[in-house]
Amino acid sequence: QPIFIIPMRWLGRLLAWNELRIFDRVKDVPGVPHFFGRVGETGIAHVFVPGRPLRRGDALDETFFVQLDEMVKMFHEREAAIVDLEKPENVLVGDDGRPYLTDFQISYALPRNRLGRWFFGRLIFKVFCQCDSFHYRKHVYRCRPDMLPQDLIDRRLDPPFWLCWLRTSFAAASLL
After folding, report:
1. In contact, 128 and 108? CB cutoff 8 Å
2. DSSP label at residue 129
3. Which DSSP string do the residues of 38-72 spell out, in sequence order?
4. E strands, 104-157, in order
5. Helix, strand, coil percent values for the chain (each to nearest 5)
6. pLDDT by residue, tens only, the chain of 176 residues
7. Separation between Cα atoms, residue 72 and residue 82, nearest integer Å
8. Rounded to an integer, what distance in angstroms lies between the CA atom of residue 90 and that of residue 54?
9. Bridge partners of residue 91, in order along the sequence
């Protein structure tokens, strides 16, 4: 859909291409549904996962978060960061009680060429991985705080430095 009169099909194609790339990179990670491929220029299709989005305060089994943690680690081992893990609705609670991840439009994967070894690209990847880990802990805190050590809760889950800086900057800008 255009924004005002500016065509956005190029953005849809770019996001679909990125999602295709991420699905290919993490296709063997348990909890990532089988990906069928592209649909048209801007769509993608994967196996339907019966379940519902994660909700704050969900009383989930401890194994759910152990499995989700393993999934996040497996993404990082494959040099892919989820990036959009902040939103609880991006984590699906399957009818089988397992976690599932399906939305990778804005995920980031290091390129498998010379650019992937470039310092700036690796720095961005590291920042996104820290973001994934922080948001994973936040989901655990909201649903199963008993799984986190008390000192981590007392330190407000240790958000990464750059996230604290961004929040402070946006708060200051909103006062202007």
Report:
1. yes
2. H
3. EETTTEEEE----EEE--TT----HHHHHHHHHHH
4. 108-109
5. 50, 15, 35
6. 777 888 888 888 888 888 999 999 999 999 999 988 888 888 888 999 999 999 988 889 999 999 999 999 999 999 999 999 989 999 999 999 999 998 998 999 998 776 667 778 888 899 999 999 999 999 998 898 888 888 776 666 666 766 666 666 655 555 54
7. 8
8. 8
9. 101
CB of 104 closer than 8 Å to CB of 75: no
Would you tell me how many other CB atoms lie within 10 Å of the CB of residue 6? 8
**Residue type, position 127, single letter:** V
- Degrees (nearest 5) of the Cα angle 39, 121, 33? 35
Residue 92 amino acid letter: L
Query: pTM of this prediction?
Result: 0.82
**Tokens at 15, concatenated:** 């996001």
How far, in Å, are 1, 130, 153, 163 from residue 83 at the CA level?
24, 9, 22, 13
Nearest Cα to Cα of residue 47 among 105, 92, 107: 92
144/70 Cα distance (integer angstroms) = 17
Please name which of 23, 135, 33, 158 lies closest in space to residue 78, comparing C-alpha atoms.
23
> Residue 45, Cα to own-chain centre: how many angstroms?
18
